[in-house]
Design a protein that fits this description.
single chain; 293 residues; alpha/beta; six-stranded mixed beta sheet; three-stranded mixed beta sheet; 9 helices; binds guanosine-5'-triphosphate; binds magnesium ion
């Protein structure tokens, strides 16, 4: 059989379950997941390899109207996902009406490539709501193929994957067949730490944080990691650290446990907190953290 390969890019509003779906396809926790919007800030590749196929999935940030430069860069990642897609996975969740950004929605409506509309979180819905929602989306996007799924419960994920394989063009693999992602190890360290911050801190704190791993030393039996948690203001630094360092300690312990699973090795983490004033609006800093800036 001929070899098939291509880019399958997942886009949609914040918090609809894009990262959950990518992880379900890949079978690894490549993307962090939380119940907060704007969890994903990058375009992250997850590659699923088979003897006669290579599906290159892209998880992307949820679509928003940018208010500061970091968010502009996040939306540039979404734009790039429109440009190279062979198949577009437009994810919505039950109850949602339309994409908040008109321009992006028009792009989906006018898409020349196949669009699969994934109606996610159907585990939270009844049959009647589901049918109404399917009609609603079919009328908005007559060219899209609608698939009701639950990324969390792994419902219909396999069926969608098989449909993707049918739609992919014949092509040789773009990446080595043992490659799982385009991101380096340090990226997953940064993201795991950021996930714990999203989970345990409130209000603007998670959105003011970036993580940078300064040291990643791998021995035969242990990985030694030193990472810096960057905040925008002095007051945020105190909040991150917490009473006698207890809050920061919790972040470290939980991140270590996840990373030990991810790397299948013992992990030691040292965490520091630094103030990096207004990094979210500083092009130079953003580039340093892997955004376009
Ligand atoms: N009930 C239910 N919850 C889901 C499902 N898929 C994802 N979730 C939950 O929805 C929340 C958001 O999931 P994510 O995968 O982080 O969503 P996302 O679209 O990547 O979010 P951003 O990166 O912020 O744009 C998490 O709490 C998930 O557990 C689903 O099929 N059913
Ligand atoms: Mg995400």
């Amino acid at each position: 059989m001929a070899h098939k390969a291509g880019f399958v890019n997942i886009i949609g509003n914040p918090n609809v379950g894009k990262s959950t779906l990518m992880n379900a396809f890949v079978g690894e926790k490549l993307s962090i997941i939380t119940s907060k919007a704007q969890t994903t800030r990058h375009r992250i590749l997850g590659i699923v390899n088979g003897d006669d196929f290579q599906v290159i999935l892209s998880d992307t940030p949820g679509i928003i109207k940018p208010a500061y430069e970091l968010q502009t860069s996040m939306m540039d990642f979404v734009k790039s996902a429109f440009e190279d897609a062979d198949v577009l996975l437009y994810m919505v969740e039950i109850g949602e009406k339309a994409l908040k950004d008109e321009a992006f929605f028009k792009k989906i409506q006018n898409s020349k490539i196949p669009v699969l509309l994934l109606l996610n979180k159907i585990d939270t819905s009844d049959q009647e709501t589901l049918e109404t929602q399917m009609e609603h989306w079919q009328s908005l996007l007559p060219n899209a193929e609608i698939h009701p799924i639950s990324a969390l419960e792994n419902f219909s994920v396999k069926e969608v994957f098989n449909r993707i394989l049918e739609l992919l063009p014949e092509a040789p693999p773009y990446y080595p067949k043992d490659q799982l992602t385009d991101k380096p190890e340090r990226f997953f360290v940064n993201e795991t730490i950021r996930e714990k911050i999203l989970l345990h801190y409130k209000k603007e704190i998670p959105y003011s944080v970036e993580v940078e791993t300064e040291e990643f030393l791998e021995d035969d039996d242990i990985i030694r990691i030193r990472s810096v948690i960057m905040v925008e203001r002095d007051t945020q630094k105190g909040i991150i650290i917490g009473h006698k360092g207890s809050a920061l300690k919790r972040v470290g312990v939980e991140a270590r446990k996840d990373l030990e699973k991810f790397f299948d090795k013992q992990v030691h983490i040292e965490l520091y907190v630094k103030v990096n004033k207004n990094w979210r609006s500083n092009s130079q800093q953003l580039r340093r953290f892997g955004y376009n800036g």
